[in-house]
Amino acid sequence: MNRLAKMLAGTFLAGAGTAHAADLEVTHWWTSGGEAAAVSEFAKAFNENTDHNWIDGAIAGSGGTARPIIISRIIGGDPMGATQLNHGRQAEELIEAGLLTDLTELAEQQGWKDIVNPPSLLEACTFEGRIYCVPVNIHSWQWMWLSHGAYDAAGIPVPSDWNAFIESAPKLQEAGIVPLAIGQQSWQQRGAFDVLSVAIAGVDAWRKVVVNRDVGAAMGPEYQNVFAAIETARQLAADSNVQDWNQATNMVITGKAGAQIMGDWAQGEFQIAEQVAGEDYTCLPGLGMNEVLDTGGDAFYFPVIDDPEVQKAQLELASTLISPDVQVAFNLKKGSLPVRGDIDLSAANDCMQKGLDILKAGGILPSGDMNLTPDTQTQIEDLMAEFWSTDMSAADAQAHYADLIRAAE
Amino acid sequence: MADLSSSHSPDGKRAQRPMSLFRNLPAKIASIPMILTALVVFVGGTAWTVVHSFTSSKLLPNTKFVGFDQYERLWTTRRWLVSIENLALYGMLSLIFTLVIGFTLAALLDRKIRGENVFRTIFLYPFALSFIVTGLAWQWILNPDLGIQHVVRGLGWESFTFNPLNDPDIVIYGILIAGLWQGTGLIMVIMLAGLRGIDEDIWKAARVDGIGTIKTYIVVIIPMMRPVFVTALVLIMSGIIKLYDLVVALTNGGPGIASEVPAKYVIQYMFRAQNLGQGFAASTMMLVSVAIILIPWAYLEFGGRKRG
């Protein structure tokens, strides 16, 4: 009897011990090789440092596929414990409807305001003075990745900016190499357009159009150059018939393509392929023209769940995500920049150092996600999808674009 | 048929009429849940959608009315116009080819051939696959480096080009091929059932009169199979209007926006672009287009029957 009682007490205690642990389902769309390796750093840290369990809810496909699923789950009353979203205007209405957890107290306790750099990241998480998300990394679109293998095969030096790249293109084509790799998905085509507009029209014109929605500037000569440039880019990418961005990156890695315009998440793919920045590939922030980076990125939101255990787990996950060790481990795998200015990233490679230097020098743009609503962005994506797949003229595309900017809210 | 004729018999009608509301009471009580579902979910949901298509709803529905703004924007959007064009083209061709191929196959099987079961299974088999699987399979079949083009070139015809999925001008035909492959089997089976319902004596009479086989089919059998054709028509048309997953799996609307369809526009604007108002306006237009096709047909079909 005594033994039985002890056993019962034991199980009871064990039960009490696990009562504090919660299973937290975390949804995200990090599924390519480099991304999956990075997100497993989060899961590892959360499982090891807290009592709670990370239940991985990866959703395959890009953010465009995953976001509707995530949002409809939150709206439909089946919220997950935590979810990745790009911060910016995507979550505005969810916050207004009171569906997301207010993290302000935790943020004040840990002094996020002082550690998050650049501050615009935390501002993007802030709605009417309250903080609703944890930024986890900084991603910037403004990068071009060049394959040393391809340029060696063509017997010419690796170009140092967009104009030199255009000049080198015919040589690449002679050597049977596709000059520019781009996946046939509209978000990639819009991304390339955004990058080219900052690089070619310059920051001032870009700001006028995207931030202030100045239609005159959208029709202006600076933007005319941008549309001429994407017309050239369309010719150079004519033989690139892959779909996913990482397939396009793979063309650069294997030397089948000369270059790709893609955000710094492409870096994770180069790392998985064990390529070394500066030796096997070169990165050009701002296409070598305008060294500024936008500061988009990923953030985690925590839907309101009426269960104290889960709420506790949510807050613990939030502080885990932004803790220094986790930031370093995650961002090294992901190829993105950490959100904290106070951590040592000497382990970072050549390209990441370039990015860090630009951030330090203050070459920062607010990302498109923060300026334009998803509605306007979808319309621009539709326009770009049409432009890249047909022979639509640059002037027509510019006129359509100006219309969209005029109608933007 | 027996049921129908008995209820039409004059005596039965006169005796039952005053009590018709309470006739078969248990059956009527049993169908209340379905009636409620139909009213609340279908009619109510439709009305709610139509009302909100006149608002500026974004991620969450609101009731700020903006008149016809959403519709104006819809009909000036290139992508929507392309979608409508694609659906019209796909719809027309799919309707014609599904009926023709379905009926032809059924008629061939009906000629008492050997191994009918085998052929029927082969033709019906694609229908057991979801559109997503169909789409992926045809993506490979139509891929120039793996599929038909590769095989034909391998046989020695080097200049052969068949690459519908990457050509904006003909991509919709690529989707049509996959759609037909998937859908004709079912129509064939329905037609075959209809053909089997034709009395053997009709054939004998036709033979006595010396009418040829093909002419018998066209002049005698097809008119007799009217109800079967109506069923097939409804099935095909509903499949056309809701065309979505096949496109997603096969081309995802590409290249560019060349193979977009209305249902995809609705989903895209409702959830991805977080603009419910625009999505609702688009889905209301889909409803209107269905109504335009359906109402005259229903009027002819049911209005005609009452008179007869």
Quickly list its features.
heterodimer; A: 409 residues; alpha/beta; four-stranded mixed beta sheet; 13 strands; B: mainly alpha; MetI-like fold; 16 helices; disordered N terminus
Description:
The complex is a heterodimer of chains A (409) and B (308). Chain A has 409 residues and is α/β, with parallel strands linked by helices. Chain A has 2 domains: 23-139 and 295-362, D-Maltodextrin-Binding Protein, domain 2; 143-294 and 372-407, Periplasmic binding protein-like II (D-Maltodextrin-Binding Protein, domain 2, 3-Layer(aba) Sandwich), CATH 3.40.190. Helices cover 55% and strands 12% of the residues of chain A. Chain A is built from 20 helices and 13 strands. Chain A has helices spanning 2-18, 33-49, 63-75, 92-96, 104-110, 112-115, 120-125, 148-154, 162-174, 186-211, 215-219, 221-236, 245-253, 266-272, 308-322, 324-334, 350-361, 368-371, 374-389, 394-407, and strands spanning 23-28, 53-58, 82-86, 126-127, 130-131, 133-135, 143-147, 178-181, 257-261, 281-285, 293-294, 298-301, 364-365. A 5-stranded mixed sheet of chain A has the order 2-1-3-12-6, sandwiched between helices. Chain A has a 4-stranded mixed sheet with strand order 8-9-7-10. The longest helix of chain A is centred in the middle third of the chain and has 26 residues, at 186-211. Chain A is globular and about 65 Å long. Chain B is an all-alpha fold. In chain B, 71% of the residues lie in helices and 0% in strands. In chain B, helix 6 (78-109) packs antiparallel against helix 13 and helix 7 (116-124) runs antiparallel to helix 10 (171-196). The two termini of chain B are 15 Å apart. Mean pLDDT of chain B is 86; it is low at 1-10. Chain A binds chain B through residues 64, 67-68, 71-72, 75, 90, 92-94, 96-97, 184-185, 241, 373-375, 377-379, 382-383, 385-390, 400, 407, and chain B through 58-60, 73, 77-79, 166, 168, 252-258, 267-269, 271-275, 278.
